[in-house]
Amino acid sequence: MNEKTRIDPDARLALVLLRYSTFLDQAGFARTARISPSQVSLYERGEGSVPWKVLEKAADAAGFPRPLLRPLVRAIQSFRLACKGWSRIRGLLLETLVSGLIEISGEVLNLVGTPIAVPQPVVGPSVSDRDVAQELWLRMKQRTPGQRRALVEEVEEFRNWALSERVAEESVATAPSSPPKALELAQLAVQIAELLPGEDWLRCRTQGYAWFHVSNAHKASGDFGDADAALVKARTLWAAGAPGKPGFLSEAIALALEAKLHQSRRRFHLGLQRIDEALAADTGELKARLLLNKAQILDALGNTETASAVLREAVSYIDEQQDPRAALGVRFQFLLNLCLAGRAREAAPGLRVVRALAEKVGQGLDVSRVEWLTGKIAAGCSQAKEAETAFEQARKEFASSDPPLAFDYALVSLDLALLLLEQNRTSEVRPLAEQTVNLFRRYGIQREALAALQIYCEAAKREDATVELTRQVIRFLHRSQHDPELTFNGNEPGTEGQR
């Protein structure tokens, strides 16, 4: 009997079993195993023989050891015969077991050249666990939330402290675009941490780390009460794990997430305290991002000069090759702060690098914002024509985004209004103000920012909008991005000569 005939239909059932063990549908499993989706469907319907190479690919996709494939096929064969009531089933099962054990031993010896090791007790955490965690995450990421939870519940391999850390990292990356998904991932990180084998300190420390991310996901959704409650739990568990060997999970990241929540809750001085603690705990990898966060809190407090000094320090720590996104954020904010402080000429030499980073990151929004910054620098350098062209282009791009970027649109429109007022083109300011308020009403979410824009619009209708009032509103909007509850009182600090 040739091999192809011998392994069917048992190989077909083995293929089905392997796919179901991954919780993937036919298309997802086919991609993972690098098999044609139509072929998987054909094999499972029993309309074609399953080649052994296909079965090996399926085993690899499911994380099933290849040496166990033949015993699996034989076990399925025994199962089918038992279903038929075959009288010699006991003998066959024994034969299958013995031959399977012999074959496994031979295959493993061929693979590793050493006897089968006795199972070892759970060992402490290791940096190499992160390599394993990345592989586990790749096996998890294409599955549904329910399937991920089931994997953690049913497969001990997925109860790994570094996998909890990796899933938490994914939660942070997802939070700005999809807070619900970020919360699901953070809660998965908690589940993994709760089921960790080994010592209590590692379980507590990992749970605490995961709960910081749950707090961050609630913050991203605007659920600040839940965010504060999660933070209390995070700090308690984090502290409980401190007596062990806590260096495997980043204290700097935990403190930075807490600082962002304090900032959102307008607890600015507590936020600054946590950022300074994070900077002290950081080993260097997060320095630029932490300094950027610190500058944002200082901006919310209206301390633009100190924020600019912090950003200048941050520039020296950024790695444009390893983290172009952070490099862009730091450099962009630094140049913007210089413009807001009336120092556009100092910002001009850095524009080329920022534009190159925006193009490297590859998102249209970043390029549009650099166009807006180009206008601010041109206006501050008395290049009115170039500034107007850049502002109009940025306005068009912000308005045509889906959905329109109301806040960015408002800021660039006010910059254009300021440019027009400086040229005594007062009548052109009213339509700009009305368009901005209408768009903000439809898509904006900050009540206080809208109130400030409405005040400005009323002044523009009366042709009473002045250069100083425009600067006041511009400065207010920049601060309110980091402090949405800030109230406009027409007395914004640091506005002299700003762009």
Structural commentary:
Residues 1-7, 86-92 and 94-122 have low confidence and may be disordered. Among the domains are: 3-112, 434 Repressor (Amino-terminal Domain) (Orthogonal Bundle), CATH 1.10.260.40; 130-249; 394-499, no CATH class. It has 499 residues and is mainly alpha-helical. Helices cover 71% and strands 0% of the residues. It has 26 helices and no strands. The longest helix is centred in the N-terminal third of the chain and has 24 residues, at 89-112.
Task: From the structure above, extract its key features.
0% strand; mainly alpha; elongated; disordered N terminus; 499 residues; 26 helices
Topology:
Elements: H1 3-6, H2 10-22, H3 26-33, H4 37-44, H5 52-62, H6 69-83, H7 89-112, H8 129-140, H9 145-154, H10 161-174, H11 179-194, H12 200-221, H13 224-240, H14 251-264, H15 268-281, H16 287-300, H17 304-315, H18 324-340, H19 344-347, H20 351-361, H21 364-380, H22 384-400, H23 406-422, H24 429-443, H25 447-461, H26 467-480
Helix pairs in contact: 2-5, 2-6, 3-4, 3-5, 6-7, 8-10, 9-11, 10-11, 10-12, 11-12, 12-13, 12-14, 14-15, 15-16, 16-17, 17-18, 18-20, 18-21, 20-21, 21-22, 21-23, 22-23, 23-24, 23-26, 24-25, 25-26
